[in-house]
Amino acid sequence: MSVPSVLATVCLIGMAAYFYARSRIRGIEAGSSVTLHSRPGYHGVHAFMAAVMPALGLLVVWTVASSILVDRAIRTDLPDSPAYASPERRDLAIGMIGSIARGLTLLDDEGRAAARAGIEAARPLLAARGVAVAAEADDAMVAAAFHANAIGEASALWRAVATLLVSVAGFAWTATQLRPRVRARNRVEGVVLAMLIVASSIAILTTAGIVLSMISETGRFFASVAPHEFFFGTVWDPRFAAAGATDSAGQFGLIPLLAGTLYIAFVAMLFAVPVGLFAAIYMAEYAGPRLRSVAKPLLEVLAGIPTIVYGFFAIVTVGPFLRDLSARIAGIATGEATGFIQAQSVLTAGVVMGIMLIPFVSSLSDDIITAVPRAMREGSLGLGATRSETVKRVILPAALPGIVGALLLTASRAIGETMIVVLAAGVVARLSLNPFEPMTTVTVKIVSQLTGDLEFDSPQTLVAFALGITLFAITLGLNVCALYVVRKYREQYE
Prior knowledge:
Elements (H helix, E strand, L loop, with lengths): L2 H28 L9 H38 L9 H18 L4 H7 L3 H10 L10 H37 L8 H41 L2 H6 L3 E2 L13 E2 L2 H32 L2 H12 L6 H28 L11 H25 L3 H9 L4 H29 L3 H6 L17 H8 L9 H35 L1
Antiparallel strand pairs: 1-2
Helix pairs in contact: 1-2, 1-6, 2-6, 2-7, 3-6, 4-5, 7-17, 9-12, 9-14, 11-12, 12-14, 13-14, 14-17, 16-17
């Protein structure tokens, strides 16, 4: 019995328990003068939880344990031959056995009986079903695949039986709890509270896991490369070593990457902040309701465009436009047709990233400006100030803390951008103040260091974790500052 079938059956049992408990409590309520502690709906939900939640927990645990059991059985079936001596070759063989096992499930009984003869008999049968078998496969793998399927089928059968028995047992236990004074509401709310705690803990535990994993790998990197060489180095030249090598050849200077990250983010903010802030002021203070209902959604459409599309736009449109424009300006000024702006440059990446950030600045600033108390606007206008004077001397000073927080959040978004930089600014790590030349960022180098079939035992690969923890610290600092400023703003004007 497959997992979806078991899930459907358990849900049906749960629904039956819900309607039975609710109707039974209604009957008790109608035929008795005793006041119910909980409404019939709570009793129904309590019955549904008792019939479904333990069964689902058993289903999940059994499925995970079954996969572990099958993996151990496969490893036991593999012979102790030189072909499976190394852990890498055994892992590769287990992957091939899993592929063969899935292919065998597609065969009928006659095909499976023929495939038991060995790999040479099984290969054409599996190929006819669209399952490719590697040339390194042998008869032992076919036998292990049959054994794995047998264990999986037996496990699936007993899993279905056990899950349904637990569900029915939960239904039966609930039937004994259908009494007027049973605190079904407290039990249901307790379960819901536990679910909310678990859900809220997932984000915290995930963040902790990410940070701990990055810190552990970063420690391995700094065991090979001195921290001062990383944090204060001005040359980025990792020079990848051969697979399995642990030498620290190369230079891992962070300064060029950090400079490129901050430079591109700065150019993007120079473009996004004025446009987004002015758009927010117009929509909040000047635009009519009809225009606002159309312009605001259209502006926020920019936030839904994938960043890779912005990268295409940069490399196909913005970069060539700036290059050709600079060539025309140079031709008029010096008579030479060589442009001073390269297609891939800090300016190109900054402009396109700024376009992407406009809806973030505009939407956040618009919400903050509209949250300023209306009495402040009316008081300023009542004293004879014009609308523009009210915006400049009353609205913006009142909304300034919130706007600053919004800009800090936008800056952290700009610092973490990758795809636009890859396509629009290149991958060259350099120190330069010229915005017309290519530079790169920390995120781009994280991607490049972790691209390909690499082993996490050399500084050339582990440096990606050091870059990641550095970027994490920067964005975390910006987010903390932004949240502090926004919280201060809310406390003052709510």
